[in-house]
Every structure is written in C-alpha cells, then in structure tokens.
Amino acid sequence: MHEKIAFISLGCPKNQVDAELMLHRLEDAGYELLDSPDGADLAIVNTCGFIASAKQESIDTILEMAQRKEDGDIGKILVIGCMAERYRDEILKEIPEADAVAGIGANGKIEETVRSVLDGSFRSEYPPKAEMPLEGPRTQTTPPYWAYLKIADGCSNCCTYCAIPSIRGPFRSRPLENVVKEAEELVAGGVRELILIAQDTTRYGEDLGGELLLPKLLRRLGKIEDLKWIRLLYCYPDRITDELLETMRDEPKVLHYIDLPLQHASGRILAAMNRRGDRESLTALIARIRDYLPDAVLRTTFITGFPGEDEAAFEELGEFIEEIGFDRLGCFAYSPEEGTPAEALPDRPDEETAARRADLLMERQYDIMGDKLRDLIGTVAACVIEDYDGYTDSYTGRTWMDAPEIDTVIQLISSRPLETGDFVEALITDVNEYDLIGEVTD
User: Fold this and answer.
1) Span 316-338, pLDDT tens digits
2) Domain range spanning residue 9?
3) What is d(CA 158, CA 8) in angstroms, rounded to the nearest whole number?
4) Which DSSP category does 412 fall into?
5) For residue 284, what are the contacts with CB-CB under 8 A and spacing of at least 6?
6) What CATH number has the domain bearing residue 77?
7) Residues 237, 277: contact at Cβ < 8 Å?
8) What is the mean pLDDT of residues 205-232?
C-alpha cells in the first residue's frame, strides 16, 4: 500500500488533536502522508463548523481541493470533522466534487474509511458521536517542545448561540490516569509545555463522578519531572473555584494564565445566552482571581450584536473592558447559527452595527494592551525560543504570558547561541506595536 494522503485540518486546537489521532492511524496503516495536496490520491479536509467564518473557510478549502481534483493534481476528496457532522449529506449535494463525507464518530476507523473511499465503495457514514475516540497514539503536528493535551470533548453548557453541543455531543471527560499517562509520554518525547484544552476545561471530571478534577489533574501533572509549563485554555467562569486558584498559586509549573471566555458583561444579555452572571459577579470573580494570582494574565472573548444588545448593554460591556483591563482580548460580531435557540431571538442588531461595535471594543483593547505591554519594560520574564533570524541575528519567542499562535511574541537578542525550544529568562527592554523586545539574561 503506497497511496498518498494529504490531510488538511482546520479550526480549533481540539480539532487539531483529533487530526493527530487520525494521522497516526493512517501512518500505522501504511499510508504515505504528504505535506502538500499535490500528487495525493486522496485529500482529507478536517472541517470546522462553529461559526460562519469558520464554515466559509472549510467550504473554500473543499472547493480548492475540488479545483485541484479537476486539474488532475489530486485523486479524491473526503470531508470529515465538525462541518461534516453538522451538515452531513448536504455537503455532497451542495459540493458534488466531494467524493465522500464522514461524521466525527467515524474518526476511530479513519483508515478503513480511507480504504473504502479509495476503492470507490464509500459515500457517507455518520456513526454515533460517542464513538469518536478521545485518546490514543498521536502524530504530533505542533513543534516538538509544546503540545495540546485534550482532557475532554463535547459540551453540556448549551449556550443559546452555540452549535457545539449538537455537533460534538455532551461533555465527556477522559479518565485522569489516562490523561496523566499521555502527558508523561509527551514529555518523554520532548514536550516541555502542555496546553490543556476542552470545550470547558474547568468542568473536567464532573461527569466521571460529580467532582471537578482539574485541580487534582494539575497537581499530578506538576509532578512530571521534565515538564516546564502547564497552560489552561477554555476556562468557564462559573467553575473557577478557590481550589483551582489555590492549585494554580501553589503549583510552580502551572502558569498564571487563564483563558476565560466571558462573551458579555450585561446580565440581561448573558441570561439570553443561557450563561450565568452579570457585570458585578464577573468583576468579583476577576478580583478573586487577582487576589490569589496578582500577576495573572487574563485572556477573554466577547460577542457584540447578540439579540437584545441595545446601546446601553454595549456601553456596559465597553465600560467593563475598560475597568478590568484584560491582558488579551478578542471580540467577534454575533453570527446566528442554524438550529440554535438564539437564531429565533428578537431584536438582533444588524450586521453592520455588530461589526462596528466589535471594532470599537478592539480599538479600546489595543490601547489597554499597549499600556500593559509598556508597563513590562524593565521586568524579567520566562520565555521559550521559537525561531531564529540569521539576517538580524535575533530570536523570536514567547513569554509565559503568551499562548502559541494566538498571543503576542517577543524579539530577543542573546550573547550565546540558542536552540528552538530553549527556555530562558529575558529582560524586556522595549515594545514594537504589540510585540515585546528583550535581551536574554541567563
């Protein structure tokens, strides 16, 4: 068997881990994996179906593969992932150039699906979502020194704007011992930074017996000898417990970095989103986080233009952002998703208003972030080296305050040669727009 496979994975880190599990199965089955679609017997598109822009990227990628197929560059096209699970045979109807579609429940037998597609005997299949494997051997697609560690999948929060529960199914935690074992294997393979992910990381363990197990997991991971950093993404605000904050404070390898998607600050809008809290309770939560972790770096996301968001609610959100001073922030105009409860809600601002409000909030955030970065000048931060520029004899890296691929970088000079993946201390000397400049001190 020497068939060549091109695997294009789109969307979030959780989808990327799914891809890594499937890539290992394909390699183990003897398929040759290509870096480029050119010359592939089969192109697999692992789609995202979360919001309109992500769906459009998936559609554009499928159409690009269709053009390559027409040009004779590739043989067949298999569509998998979240958009495939969500729209199923509709994809085959709307994009007939696609040869086959498989839902996420088929991920665990991707090698069999590929064999059937290549043989011409497979068109579509949608096994139960619960059959999608959450663990197993992976072919790591991140740099060797950091990796995502998916601790759960699915979601049971049922926010009214979100299609994820219908796409991925209810929240499912992995057994704690299995997560620790995988972490140990990743570190043994050279990983030094583990980034914990799930649809709701802070809910981890609740479905296994009612107890929130994230603090226990962090303490176990903190004992892995060669592990340097543990980073948390996708932390739901309701489950930021005192035990979690105490663990983050007391475990030296757990970074004081919390990705806390809040979505809004108006209690009325949050209730319409089926989320708890209001500006007062969220302000109190962040005060509690900063009490435990005075150097906490807070990343969040907000949605503008949600149904019912009038000027007063928008102003409340803007004032909240100014008051809190988030370190990292993203803002998105509301995108109504088919089949979600929010799609039918009244009083939705028009698209232009929603986009304008998102732009206004980001303008405020750029000022806040610029001030926060300038405040770091003269301080020393732990960094990881990611790249070297021979032309300027300088390095690009990330501080502990920055997650890969979504946050800022730091440009570094060093009096000694460094390697990608080295962890160093650096004095921050300047700011270039929204990136830091520094000198390695150790």
Assistant:
1) 999 999 999 999 999 999 989 98
2) 4-131
3) 29
4) E
5) none
6) 3.40.50.12160
7) yes
8) 96
Give the whole-angstrom CA distance, residue 430 versus residue 414. 15
Torsion angle defined by CA atoms of residues 217, 220, 223 and 225, in that order, rounded to the nearest 10 degrees: -70
What digits encode the pLDDT tens for the residues 339-382? Answer: 999 999 999 999 999 999 999 999 999 999 999 999 999 999 99
Residue with tokens 């050119």: 38
Amino acid at 203: R
Q: What tokens appear for 413 in the block?
A: 């000079």
H/E run at residue 410: strand 410-413
Q: Is residue 136 part of a domain?
A: no
Which one of 131, 158, 182 terminates a domain? 131
Measured from the Cβ of residue 48, the count of other Cβ atoms closer than 10 Å reads 23
258 forms bridges with which residues in the sheet?
232, 298
For residue 271, being part of any structural domain is answered with: yes
Interacting residues of 377 by C-beta distance below 8 A, sequence separation 6+: 428, 429, 430, 431
Global confidence as pTM: 0.94
E strand intervals along 305-354: 328-333
Structure tokens at 102: 């498989």
Q: Assess whether 237 and 194 both reside in one domain.
A: yes
pLDDT digits 0-9 by tens, 391-408: 989 999 999 999 999 999
* Percent of the chain scoring above 70 in pLDDT: 100
